Amino acid sequence: MRQLGEKGLSMVELLVSFTIMGIIAVVATPLFSTCLDTYRVAYARSMLYHEGLLAMERMTCGVRRCTYLLIPNSHTPIRNDILAFSGFVNDDNDYYFDDSLFPKIDEDTGNDMNNDGYSGIFNIDDDGNGAIDEEFDNGDDDEDGKANEDRLDGIDNDSDGNIDEDLPRDTNSDNAPGIAGIDDDGDGNVDEDSKWDDDEDGLIDEDSLNPLIYSFDSSTNTLREIFSDTGQSIILSTHVTSFQVTYTCNATVLESIIFWIKIDLTLTGDDGENVVFSEYVYPRNTLQKTGKRVR
Question: Across residues 111-139, what is the average pLDDT?
Answer without folding.
Answer: 90
